[in-house]
Write a structure and sequence with these properties.
The complex is a heterodimer. Chain A is an alpha/beta fold. Chain A has two domains: about 220 residues, P-loop containing nucleotide triphosphate hydrolases (Rossmann fold, 3-Layer(aba) Sandwich); about 70 residues, 2-Layer Sandwich (Alpha-Beta Plaits), CATH 3.30.70. Chain A is built from ten helices and 14 strands. Chain A has a six-stranded mixed sheet with strand order 6-7-8-3-9-10, with helices on both faces. In chain A, strands 2-1-4-5 form a four-stranded antiparallel sheet. In chain A, strands 12-13-11-14 form a four-stranded antiparallel sheet. In chain A, β9 and β10 form a beta hairpin. Chain A is elongated and about 80 Å long. Chain A starts with a strand and ends with a helix. The mean pLDDT of chain A is about 90. By secondary structure, chain B is mainly alpha-helical. Chain B has one domain. Chain B contains ten helices and no strands. The chains are: A alpha/beta, B mainly alpha. Chains A and B meet through α2 and α3 of A and α1 and α4 of B. Bound molecules: adenosine-5'-diphosphate and magnesium ion. The site of adenosine-5'-diphosphate (ADP) has 12 residues of chain A, from α1.
C-alpha cells in the first residue's frame, strides 16, 4: 500500500507550554478514507493544521507524497485541500469569486467549467452571485468544501465536517466523500461523532491527549476489540449464579431476571453450547436470548478510559 | 513552479475589489479631506503668507499634502488588508496555500501600493483645480510616489501582522505617522526652523520623503535630492527585511 502522508515523531508544544501532540506516528494510505477520532481537545485540529502549514511543528517530520511540508512546502501544499473546522469565510465576496479565488491561490489557471461543476455539486449554484454573508451555516460549510475542491487536491482534509450540520446535509456530505474517494482522492476527516467514522472510514485512528492510541482497519478494529454479548432472559429470577458456572464469568442483572455472557470474536462461539447445556443441567431456563456486538463507541470509550487510568 | 503568478493575481484582484467596494473610504474621503486642506491652508491662510522660495503657499503645500495622504492611506490599506483575514480567520487559506512569503508580500503590498499611487495621482489632479501646478521632474515625482507607496504599504503590512486588535491598527498612523508628517515639513520648509530644531527634524524620516517629492515639483529642497533618495531606499530595504523576518519565523501568523 502506498502512503500519501507519512508523519514521523511529530510533536507540538504551543507557546503556552501546552503539549498538544506527543510523538505522533501515522501513515495515511493513498486513496483511503481515514477518520481521526477523538474527544474535544485531543489534538485533531492541531495535527491537521501542522500538515497543512497553518501551525508550525515543534519537532518531527511530515511528508506528503514524499515531500517535506516544511522544506518543500509548495509542492506538498499543491496536493492538499483543507476544509477547516471553523466557518471562516469572507463576508462580502460572492460564492463564485470565493471559489475562483481559491483556485488561483493554488496556482491553477482559470477553469470556469470546473468551478461551475463544483458549485453545482455542492448545491450552491443558485447562490453563486450572492454575498457569502447571506448564506446559512450549512451553505458556508459547503462553500468551504467547494473552495477546497476548486484546486483539485489529491488529499482532502475535513476537520469536523458535520459539526453543527443538520441530518440531511450530513448524509449529502457522506455521499460526497464517497464520490471523492471513488475519483481517487485521499480523505482524512476528524470527528468526535463515532457514527461518522463508522459510516465512512476505511481506517480509523483514535487520538486522545495528543497521542495516537490505535490505528486500524475499521472492520478489524471492530472485530478485534468488539466484544459480543449473549443475553439470556430467564424464565424465573435466580438469586445468584451457581458456582459451577463460575468459569463463564456470567453477570446477573440487577432485577435478577437475565444473565449476560461476554465473549469475543477470537474465541467465536466457544463455550456457548456448553454454557447452554450447563444452564439446563442447573435447571435454569430462559425464555429469550439476544446477542449484542459492541459498537465503535464502546471501543472508543474503553480505550479512552484505559488511557485515562494509565495517566 | 518558480513563481505562483496565479496566486499573486488572485490576491491582487481580491484586494483591489475590496477597495472598489469601499470606494468612499479608500478614495473619496482622502480626496475630500485634502480639498479641505487646500481651502483652509491654501486659500484662507495661504493668502496671508508670502511666497516660499518663489512658490505660492498653496502650491508649496501640494507635495506635502499628497505625502500625508500617501503615508496614512498606504499604512491603513495595507495593515487592514492583512489584519482582517487574521481577525476573521480566513488567513488559514493563505497559510495553507502553496504561496511563498515573497508572493504574499508582492500581492498584498502591491495592491495597497497601487491604491496609494492611484490615490496620489487623484489628489494631484484635485490640487490642480485649486492651485497652478508645475512638475519640473516628472520622472522623479513618480519615483518618489512609487517608492513611498511601496515602503509605507510594507510598514502597514508589518503593523497589520503585529496588531492583535483594532486599536493597535489605528495607533501607529495616529500617534506616529500623522505627527511625523506634520512635523516633517508638509506645510513649511524646515529651513524656517531654528538651527537646533532643523537638526532634530533631520531625524524624522518623513522630512526626506517630502523634501525629495517637493524637489521633483519645484526644484527646491530642504535636503540634497540624493540624500532624500538614499534615505527613501533605505526605508524600503529596512521594511523589506522586517517583513521577510516575519515570514521566516511565522511571527504572529502561525502558532
Ligand atoms: N494556539 C493555541 N495555543 C495554546 N493551546 C492551544 C492552541 N490551539 C489549541 N490548543 C490546545 O491544544 C489542545 C488540542 O486542540 P485541538 O487540536 O484544537 O483539539 P481537537 O481539534 O481535537 O478538539 C487543546 O487543549 C487546545 O486548548
Ligand atoms: Mg478540532
Amino acid at each position: 500500500m502506498q502512503n500519501i502522508i507519512s508523519i514521523k515523531n511529530l510533536s507540538k508544544v504551543y507557546q503556552s507550554g501546552f503539549h498538544a501532540l506527543n510523538e505522533i506516528n501515522l501513515e495515511i494510505h493513498k486513496g483511503e478514507i481515514f477518520a481521526l477520532l477523538g474527544p474535544n481537545g485531543a489534538g485533531k485540529t492541531t495535527l491537521i493544521n501542522i500538515v497543512c502549514g497553518i501551525v508550525n511543528p515543534s519537532s518531527g517530520q511530515v511528508l506528503v507524497d514524499q515531500r517535506d511540508i516544511v522544506k518543500d512546502y509548495r509542492e506538498a501544499r499543491f496536493l492538499i485541500g483543507l476544509v477547516p473546522q471553523e466557518l471562516t469565510t469572507d463576508a462580502f465576496e460572492t460564492v463564485w469569486n470565493a471559489v475562483s479565488f481559491s483556485r488561483g491561490l493554488y496556482g491553477k489557471p482559470k477553469n470556469p467549467e470546473l468551478v461551475e461543476r463544483i458549485i453545482k455539486q455542492l448545491s450552491l449554484w443558485d447562490k453563486k452571485d450572492n454575498k457569502i454573508m447571506t448564506l446559512s451555516g450549512g451553505m458556508k460549510r459547503r462553500l468551504l468544501i467547494a473552495k477546497a475542491l476548486s484546486h483539485e487536491p489529491q488529499v482532502l482534509f475535513l476537520d469536523e465536517p458535520t459539526a453543527g450540520v443538520d441530518v440531511n446535509l450530513r448524509q449529502d456530505m457522506w455521499n460526497l466523500v464517497k464520490e471523492l474517494k471513488q475519483s481517487g482522492v485521499t480523505i482524512i476527516l476528524t470527528t468526535h461523532y463515532i457514527e461518522e467514522a463508522e459510516e465512512m472510514a476505511d481506517r480509523i485512528g483514535i487520538i486522545n491527549k495528543g497521542r495516537i492510541l490505535l490505528v486500524d482497519e475499521k472492520k478489524s478494529l471492530m472485530t478485534k476489540l468488539g466484544k459480543k454479548e449473549l443475553i439470556l432472559d430467564l424464565h424465573s429470577p435466580i438469586d445468584e449464579i451457581p458456582n459451577k458456572l463460575e468459569v463463564y464469568n456470567l453477570i446477573l442483572s440487577k432485577d435478577k431476571k437475565s444473565v449476560t455472557f461476554t465473549y469475543d470474536e477470537n474465541n467465536k462461539g466457544v463455550g456457548i453450547a456448553e454454557l447452554l447445556k450447563e444452564l439446563a443441567n442447573e435447571g435454569i431456563q430462559f425464555k429469550d436470548l439476544q446477542t449484542k456486538q459492541s459498537s465503535l463507541e464502546d471501543i472508543f470509550l474503553s480505550l479512552v478510559d484505559s488511557d485515562k487510568k494509565q495517566s | 513552479m518558480i513563481l505562483n503568478t496565479h496566486a499573486i493575481r488572485a490576491i491582487f484582484k481580491f484586494e483591489m475589489s475590496r477597495t472598489l467596494r469601499t470606494f468612499m473610504q479608500s478614495i473619496a474621503s482622502p480626496v475630500i479631506s485634502t480639498s479641505l486642506y487646500f481651502i483652509v491652508f491654501g486659500s484662507a491662510i495661504g493668502s496671508r503668507i508670502t511666497e516660499i522660495e518663489g512658490i505660492s503657499y498653496g502650491a508649496f503645500i501640494v507635495p506635502g499634502l499628497i505625502m500625508l495622504s500617501l503615508l496614512t492611506q498606504s499604512i491603513s490599506n495595507a495593515s487592514f488588508g492583512i489584519y482582517f483575514p487574521k481577525f476573521s480567520g480566513t488567513i488559514y487559506e493563505l497559510l495553507s496555500a502553496p504561496v511563498s512569503p515573497f508572493e504574499i508580500i508582492v500581492s498584498y503590498v502591491g495592491a495597497a501600493a497601487t491604491k496609494s499611487i492611484i490615490l496620489g495621482l487623484i489628489i494631484l489632479a484635485t490640487a490642480g483645480l485649486f492651485v497652478p501646478l508645475q512638475i519640473m521632474h516628472p520622472f522623479w515625482m513618480l519615483l518618489f510616489l512609487i517608492l513611498t507607496s511601496v515602503t509605507f504599504s510594507l510598514i502597514g503590512f508589518i503593523i497589520g501582522i503585529w496588531a492583535d486588535g483594532f486599536e493597535k491598527l489605528q495607533v501607529i498612523p495616529l500617534v506616529i505617522i500623522t505627527p511625523m508628517t506634520f512635523l516633517g515639513g508638509s506645510f513649511y520648509s524646515i529651513s524656517v526652523l531654528p538651527a537646533f530644531w532643523q537638526k532634530v527634524a533631520l531625524l524624522n524620516p518623513v522630512v526626506y520623503l517630502i523634501s525629495g517629492f517637493r524637489w521633483s515639483f519645484y526644484n527646491i529642497a530642504d535636503v540634497n535630492i540624493w540624500i532624500s533618495l538614499g534615505m527613501t531606499f533605505s526605508f524600503l530595504v529596512i521594511s523589506m527585511l522586517i517583513v521577510f523576518w516575519i515570514f521566516k519565523t511565522g511571527y504572529r501568523l502561525k502558532s
